[in-house]
């Protein structure tokens, strides 16, 4: 039996330590890992819990992230509760195997500490790795601070392992800003946390010798399409399970999570849509701007990146007073508008308010996103509203040195 | 073409073409493409002969997967010494053997690789490769004679 870990009512944890404590409390059977900055302490923590008797599990050190996720898939197919962590280049190397995990419907939890993708090589936080995973068929949940990294890691197991979901889950947090920033975290006691997550219920596990099973089969044009459609439906339908798990978590802790977090949207005239640790900066900027200049600013933050909350984004933006929205993408867009811009625009297109929508690229490679810059962007949205049209390029770059960079304008007659 | 029915223990092998299984919609396919080898639970499958196991429609045992074979091994019982070399080496378990006696070839799974012929130690060989269209009885009637060893 694993030893109980003494925890205070309030601990001072960074996001990495918070996530590793959640992994311990969920009593993961297997972690196969190839540590990478800035997510290293998550799996390092798990290794030390195993070594010191705080968990009955197996830490498997492998030769690459491709092997790490492959090991996780093997252990999950065998019938274990499995998790690992990665970032950036490691995430990219895992990419091929991520699709296998979701297609095989194995509820692995991957705690991703978001970091920029090379080149140029960079260890700081942006969302390019998170974006890389967006078509992989995983559920993607985003924590904005250390407390949320702990809470949502526990929720991740309960969501993915739900029998109607059975999909892998990524729990994201921002590299360094969240992963290495120590904050007050209110943990649950070990038995309370484990009871919330629940016992692992394996499905089609390979260690059940009375029902020999093949995992990872090949299918061609006669079967592949049906399997992918079934998988997509499970991912789309996971929305209600995510809502249920968040509701249950609120009942247990009082801490409330939604697939889309909204702040001051009731009467908002302009809004920012963004992800990750920048959300807290944007909310602070919005509050200040409301006080200082009376501009009615709101903030919308997709907590759940996949399945994309088309329903709740639409609901959040269908505010009669809302006239201008800025979607902020913390990932190099690679020859397109930012992904958040594209997806939020598609949802907003079906609202009756149909706000003007612009796109800012920001924070690449860990470039700071300050309160004043958030306010400037909010005021720019207000200028669009006052002018009655978008007064800038549709895609712009925040915090970038050099001549002003932007693309596309609204066509006006 | 199925001529394995003449070999004991092959009755359920290759009863359908690969891909001949019933096609169902997305709502009925298995979750995660998990494919069960047997219908229901099975006890001690390792101790049952293949023909005694309840293979599922998605097990390749019941499918014929030999449609791309262009040459085939023919087995000559009169020369075979039941050494089991071919049974050990066959990469597709297509040599059928019971109680250490070689019974014949499972033509529904054999791909025609020729390994069984290579490893056969008899003189002449008890297994030889022929064109897929060849008639087995004719080839058996014209089987080569024993070869004298050349002195070096």
Care to describe what's here?
The complex is a heterodimer of chains A (413) and B (152). With 413 residues, chain A is an alpha/beta fold. Chain A folds into 2 domains: 229 residues, Rossmann fold; 148 residues, Rossmann fold. Chain A contains 12 helices and 17 strands. In chain A, helix 12 links the parallel strand 15 and strand 16. In chain A, helix 1 packs parallel to helix 6 and helix 10 crosses helix 11. The longest helix of chain A is centred in the middle third of the chain and has 30 residues. By secondary structure, chain B is an alpha+beta fold. Chain B has a single domain, classed as Alpha-Beta Plaits (2-Layer Sandwich). Chain B contains 3 helices and 7 strands, in the order E-E-E-E-H-E-E-H-E-H. Chain B has a two-stranded parallel ribbon. In chain B, a hairpin with a 2-residue loop joins strand 5 and strand 6. Classes of the chains: A alpha/beta (413), B alpha+beta (152). Chains A and B meet through strand 9 and helix 8 of A and strand 2 of B. Strand 9 of chain A pairs antiparallel with strand 2 of chain B, so a sheet runs across the interface.
Features:
heterodimer, A: 413 residues, alpha/beta, Rossmann fold, 2 domains, 7-stranded mixed beta sheet, 17 strands, B: 152 residues, alpha+beta, Alpha-Beta Plaits, two-stranded parallel sheet, two-stranded antiparallel sheet, 11% helix, elongated
Instruction: Return the string of H and E elements of chain A.
Output: EHEHEHEHEHEHEEHEHEEHEEHEHEHEE
Share of helix of chain B, binned: 10-25%
Unreliable stretches of chain B: 1-5
Rg of Cα set of chain B: 18 Å
* Percent of residues in helices of chain A: 25-40%
Class derived from helix and strand content of chain B: alpha+beta
């Amino acid at each position: 039996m694993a030893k109980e870990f003494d925890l205070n009512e309030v601990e001072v944890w960074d996001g990495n330590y918070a996530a590793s404590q959640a992994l311990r409390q969920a009593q993961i059977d297997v972690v196969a890992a190839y540590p990478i900055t800035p997510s290293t302490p998550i799996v390092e923590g798990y290794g030390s819990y195993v070594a010191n008797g705080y968990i009955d599990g197996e830490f498997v050190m492998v030769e690459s992230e491709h092997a790490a996720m492959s090991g996780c898939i093997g252990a999950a197919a065998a019938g274990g509760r499995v998790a690992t962590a990665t970032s950036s280049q490691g995430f990219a190397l895992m990419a091929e195997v991520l699709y296998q995990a979701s297609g095989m419907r194995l509820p692995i939890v991957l705690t991703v500490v978001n970091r920029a993708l090379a080149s140029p090589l960079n260890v700081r936080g942006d969302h390019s790795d998170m974006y890389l995973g967006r078509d992989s068929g995983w559920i993607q949940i985003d924590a904005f601070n250390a407390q949320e990294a702990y809470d949502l890691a526990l929720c991740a197991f309960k969501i993915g392992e739900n029998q109607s979901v059975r999909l892998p889950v990524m729990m994201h947090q921002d590299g360094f800003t969240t992963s290495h920033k120590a904050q007050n975290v209110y943990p649950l006691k070990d038995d309370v946390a484990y009871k919330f997550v629940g016992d692992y219920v394996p499905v089609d596990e390979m260690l059940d010798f009375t029902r020999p099973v093949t995992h990872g089969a090949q299918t061609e044009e006669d079967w592949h399409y049906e399997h992918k459609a079934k998988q997509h439906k499970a991912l789309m339908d996971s929305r209600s399970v995510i809502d249920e798990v968040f509701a249950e978590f609120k009942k247990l802790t009082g801490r409330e999570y939604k697939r889309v977090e909204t702040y001051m949207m009731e009467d908002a005239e302009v809004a920012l849509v963004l992800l990750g640790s920048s959300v807290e900066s944007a909310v602070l900027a919005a509050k200040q701007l409301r006080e200082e200049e009376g501009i009615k600013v709101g903030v919308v933050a997709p907590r759940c990146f996949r399945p994309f909350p088309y329903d709740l984004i639409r609901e959040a933006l269908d505010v009669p007073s809302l006239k201008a929205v800025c979607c902020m993408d913390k990932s190099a867009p690679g020859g397109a508008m930012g992904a958040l811009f594209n997806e939020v625009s598609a949802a907003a297109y079906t609202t009756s308010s149909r706000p003007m929508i612009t796109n800012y690229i920001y924070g690449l490679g860990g470039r700071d996103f300050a309160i004043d810059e958030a306010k400037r962007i909010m005021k720019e949205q207000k200028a669009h509203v006052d002018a009655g049209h978008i007064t800038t390029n549709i895609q712009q770059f925040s915090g970038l040195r050099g001549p002003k960079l932007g693309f596309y304008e609204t066509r006006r007659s | 073409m199925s001529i394995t029915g003449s070999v004991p223990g092959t009755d359920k092998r290759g009863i359908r073409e690969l891909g001949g299984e019933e096609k169902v919609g997305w709502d009925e396919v298995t979750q995660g493409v998990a494919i069960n080898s047997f219908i229901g639970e099975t006890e001690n499958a390792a101790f049952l002969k293949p023909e005694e196991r309840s293979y599922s429609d998605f097990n390749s045992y019941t499918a014929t997967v030999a449609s791309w074979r262009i040459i085939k091994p023919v087995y000559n019982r009169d020369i075979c010494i039941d050494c089991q070399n071919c049974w050990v080496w066959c990469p597709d378990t297509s040599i059928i053997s019971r109680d250490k006696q070689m019974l014949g070839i499972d033509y529904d799974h054999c791909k025609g690789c020729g390994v069984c012929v290579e490893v056969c130690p008899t003189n002449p060989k008890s297994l030889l490769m022929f064109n897929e269209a060849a008639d087995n009885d004719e080839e058996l009637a014209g089987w080569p004679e024993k070869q004298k060893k050349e002195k070096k």
